[in-house]
Structures are given as C-alpha cells and as structure tokens.
C-alpha cells in the first residue's frame, strides 16, 4: 500500500499501528495519515512525525462531519493527488463499561452509535472519491490494500453469536451495527473494486482494553498491520480476528 489513513492515533491501537508502519523501513507506505483529536495532547505521535516526513498528523474529532470534508479530505487529496488513498482504517472508538440494563442511559446508546457507527460510515463516504482513485490507479493489483480497502475496527463484543455474558449494550450494539455497515459497504463498493472488512484487534492492553488484557499493543498492532497487508477478495464483507481467523457474526 502506498497510502493509509488511520483515525484515533493519539494513543492505544491507533498509535501502535502508526509505530509499526513507520518501523517498516523501505516497505512503509509513502504517505501515512494519522488523525488525533487534539495535537497539543498527541506528544508521541507528533514526535514520530518529526522523525518521519511521510507521517502526516491531522486533527479530527471523527464526529465533526464538516471537518472530515473541509479539512481532512482536502489535506489528503493535496498530498496523494491522482494516486488516491489505498487504505482507510476506522479505528477511533469509545466503550462504556459493563452498562447493566438498570443503569443504561439513552445518551450512552446515541454516543456509541455516533462515534462507533455513524462516524466511520460518514468518513468512508467522505473518502470514497480517494479510495476510488486508488483502486483505478492500481487496477493491475489484486483486490486488497495495494488497491483500495476499508478496515473497520470492530470487536468480538459485536458478535451476536459470541455473546454469552450480556450487558455492554451501547458497545455491543454499536459494533454489531458497524459489522452490518461493513457488509453493506462490501456489496456497495464491489463494482469499484474496493473491499471492506470488519476486524477484531484482539483483547489488548490499552485504556479501553484495560490492564488484564492478554495482548500488548506492540504485538497486537504488528499482527493488525500484517492482516491489513494480507487483505484479499476473501476478506470482503467478512468479520475477522487480526490473526486472520473468521469470526461468527
Ligand atoms: P483507546 O481508548 O485506548 O483509544 C481510543 C482512541 O479513539 C483514542 O485515540 C481516542 O482519542 C479516539 N477517539 C475516541 N473518540 C473519538 C472521537 N470522537 N474522535 C476522534 N477520535 C476519538 O482504545 P483502543 O486503542 O483500545 O481501541 C481502538 C479501537 O479498537 C476501538 O474502535 C475499539 O472499539 C477497538 N477494540 C479494542 C479492543 C481492546 O482490547 N483494546 C478490543 C476490541 C476492539 P483521544 O485520545 O483524543 O481520546
């Protein structure tokens, strides 16, 4: 892949993915676009950008839809030009704790849907012209990340089949909805040779995953980037763990 955009790169898996990408040496993408909500707080990310001129840091709250179009799209277009954008990783997300039914508040549901479902879908819509350009510019390449791909960072918690514990209503419902959106995108964009896949990144030690998670950020994100590089037609419209193992909906 020549270019990739990842949201939510201030910390956690987003920052981890950026670290893996800039560590790829000669194999790193020509352009890595990393968004964060507040540059003043993104100290580590900005330090990386100072060392790697191909890393572009752009401020974005993913729920700011006019900024997606007016700033992010424009900034990326100016850099990639006719080559377009190969990969969009919708990573930014929120997760409330267990959220028993008795304590559930309506705004928890709407907040999770806004950040975890509406924002990735609208960002996909915004970036579509650039994804199409990349797909056309690389028409000799196989389907996948060297052509054009959307990776929606989902969660096993969005699997209805896997849910034996209950609770987590806002998070589970939002990730299940993101999965549904991913399947629709895979069908909608098939003709453009753009693939869309939902990926569970593993249970990882981040602010969201917590300290009991078995996976370190470095190991998980190395696997996630390998998964993105290995994407092909078989992944279109599917739900996978970062190891490549298929997950039941
Ligand atoms: P963290 O809580 O560590 O980081 C979340 C990131 O999302 C932060 O960079 C945060 O920005 C950003 N973010 C949240 N809301 C917005 C917003 N409105 N606009 C822009 N950015 C926003 O989470 P993880 O890194 O662990 O999670 C990343 C993704 O992986 C999420 O989609 C999550 O659901 C998924 N996931 C994680 C698992 C885990 O075990 N860690 C397991 C399964 C899925 P800021 O720093 O400014 O707050």
TrEMBL record:
InterPro entries: Fungal_SecMetab_SDRs, NAD(P)-bd_dom_sf, SDR_fam. Signal peptide: none annotated. GO terms for cellular component: cytoplasm. Transmembrane segments: none annotated. One of its GO terms (molecular function) is carbonyl reductase (NADPH) activity. Keywords: NADP, Oxidoreductase. Belongs to the short-chain dehydrogenases/reductases (SDR) family. This is Uncharacterized protein LOC103513868. It comes from Diaphorina citri (Asian citrus psyllid).
